[in-house]
Each structure stands twice: as structure tokens, then as C-alpha cells.
Amino acid sequence: MREIRDHGLQGVMPVIVLQTDMRIMGLDFGGKTCGVALSDPLFMTAQPKEIIRRERENKLRRTLARIEELIVEYDVGLIVLGLPLNMDDTQGERAKKTLEFQESLERRTGLRVVMSDERLTTVEAEEIMHKQGIPREKYHDYVDMIAAGIILEEYLENHRGELEAAPGGTA
């Protein structure tokens, strides 16, 4: 078992216990998309996985069902959800919808969902795509899952010491 202390955005959170070989999922939740990224079992890297698309913003059933499928398939033990705060640290409408989504995810999956500041991850994702030579008209095919990867990578980096110090872990 690995113990992971999560400090999140609201201060000290309870210890989270993950079994060895579980993964952490990162999510970039948007109006009609949800970017998904997954860690490796040692919590060293974050890999963009996919974008879950929906026709209308309030239609979340299929999004939640796909997330549940990925949780089972990849043995996910923790979810990191990007929180789109305003640059002045206030919560706008998108942040409020994301917090509602957090509650739905926790209720439906039974997993702990920690929030992570996602400001400027889309800009960073676009810079990555530009450097890779991806044409601008193709950005929508990748931006949300790359942003999810950035959210998860930042979480892993910010908690690296705690993940490495976890009893019984090999990270």
C-alpha cells in the first residue's frame, strides 16, 4: 500500500491510501469536453489518454460512464480534476460547474477527487502543439487531453516527495 498525503487547494487533506500499481487520473473538464490523462503505476509520468466529447454541456451520463470504464481498465485510485480559477483567484461560472462535476464524480465512482489549479494549462498545451508542428486547425483534437496531462504532471511534481516517501511503495 502507498500512502499519499494530498494538500490540494484547501489545505491539508486526509491521507489517501492507494494499492501498489494503481494509477492517478487527471481530468480537464470543459463545457463539451473532458480531457483525460493517466499516470504510470509508479506515479512518475502523466500520459494524455483521450478526450471525451458530449453534445450538450449538461449531458454528463456518458462522460461519467466513460470515466468509470477507464477507472476499471487502468485501476485508478485517485482523480485529479483541474479547477479553472480566475487570474485573481476567484471562482467564475466554469469553476462552479467543475466543483459540481467533482461532487458527481465522487458520488458515482466512490473515489477521492482532488482539485488542482489549472490556470494557463490550455495556453501551455497550445504552446506544446505549436512546438510539435501541429496545425492550429487540429488543436481541438488534442488540447484537452494535453491539458489534462499537464494538470496531472503538475500534481505528480508537487507531490513527488510524498509519493516517493510512501511506505511500501517502489516509486
Explain the overall architecture.
37% of the residues lie in helices and 25% in strands. It is an alpha/beta fold. Strands 5-4-3-6-7 form a five-stranded mixed sheet, sandwiched between helices. Strands 1-2 form a two-stranded antiparallel ribbon.
What structural keywords apply?
disordered C terminus; 5-stranded mixed beta sheet; 171 residues; 25% strand
Question: What's the arrangement of secondary structure elements?
Answer:
Layout: E1 2-5, E2 15-18, E3 23-29, E4 33-39, E5 46-53, H1 61-74, E6 76-83, H2 93-109, E7 113-117, H3 121-131, H4 143-158, H5 160-164
Parallel strand pairs: 3-6, 6-7
Antiparallel strand pairs: 1-2, 3-4, 4-5
Helix pairs in contact: 3-4
Would you kindly provide a brief summary of this structure?
The protein is an alpha/beta fold.
What integer value in Å does the Rg equal? 15 Å
The helix-strand sequence is EEEEEHEHEHHH
Helix content: 25-40%
Number of extended strands: 7
Average pLDDT level: 83
So what's the overall shape? globular
Tally of separate helices: 5
Q: Which spans of ≥5 residues are poorly predicted at pLDDT below 50?
A: 1-17, 167-171
Strand content: 25-35%
Main sheet properties: 5 strands, mixed
Secondary structural class: alpha/beta
